[in-house]
Amino acid sequence: MRKPLIAANWKMNTTPSEAVDLVKQMLPALDAVSGVETLICPPFISLVAVSELLRQSRVMLGAQNAYYEEKGAFTGEVSPLMLSGLCRYVILGHSERRSLFGESSQVVNKKVKAAIKSGLKPILCVGESLTDNDGGRTESVVTAQLKESLDGILEAVGLVIAYEPVWSIGTGRAASGTQANSTIKMIRDVLATLIGWQTADATRILYGGSVNAANIAEFIEQPEIDGALVGGASLKAAEFVSIVKQAASIKGCN
Ligand code: PGA
User: Fold this and answer.
1) Which backbone phi and psi does 126 adopt, to 5 degrees?
2) How far, in Å, CA of 234 to CA of 212, rounded?
């Protein structure tokens, strides 16, 4: 059984005090939900403050990025080693990092390896652009991203994949449940060739892209979809709580 994971990606939103306020608004309701894992990924500078709030909580903490070196002269970067005392998860290879900051799958591969080495669970993001989708290249693009990002990784216990079609992120234009389910099934098949059937079968694959309280059910009902990576809707306490509750009531397991 793959326990569903609902992850909040706050991106570059919230000051430290706003992050603390938002967590305080959500936490009692989130803590009352069992059967799904809930994860909050605030900006780096709020990780310490949010980790204090989550100390007695079942809600977990993740980072939105990390560099691949452990330490050294890399001004402005944060290493997986630094995060490992604070966080359980780290989002890597998000399409905004790939497109706005030029991160290639080769760089993402180094980051995934470094995260695993430091004991963090990577949430590896993959997804095709609108042009690739329209051109029928979803499978080849996503397969290449997976192969390159996971190159040389044989031990992938704890790995999470997030399938986020670029055209659906922040656009209000989510994929349909069946569309996302069939691409995620394809992703699991590719994973099986890379890390073996058993690990692929145990790996949670999330859908991300314009998920909200009105459409989460459509995704979580699908057999291959093990949760969601939620951007905009995770910045609204009541909406994020509703997403987590719906996921738990549809697919919660312990
Ligand atoms: P969105 O973002 O929910 O705002 O579309 C999802 C993501 O980028 O992880």
Assistant:
1) -135, 160
2) 8
The identity of residue 154, as a single letter, is L
Angle 126-159-172 from CA coordinates, rounded to 5°: 35
State pLDDT tens for residues 9-58.
999 999 999 999 999 999 999 999 999 999 999 999 999 999 999 999 99
Share of the chain above pLDDT 70, in %: 100
Please count the other Cβ atoms lying within 10 Å of the Cβ belonging to residue 108. 25
Token pair of 123, please?
A: 């949430």
* Ligand 1 and 174: CB distance under 6 A: no
Using CA atoms, how far apart are residues 27 and 21, in angstroms rounded to an integer?
10
Q: What is the DSSP letter of 54?
A: T
Annotated catalytic residue 139: no
Instruction: For residue 94, indicate whether it is catalytic.
Output: yes
Taking the model in full, what pTM does it have? 0.97
Q: Which atom of ligand 1 is nearest to the CA of 211?
A: 3
Ligand 1, residues 5, 11, 163: which to mutate, most atoms within 8 A of Cβ? 11
Of residues 50, 52, 66, 48, the one with CA closest to residue 8 = 50
> How does 82-103 read in b/e, with b if 16+ C-beta sit within 10 Å?
bbbebbbbbbbbbbbbbeeeeb
Torsion angle in degrees (nearest 10) through CA of 78, 6, 4, 126: -60
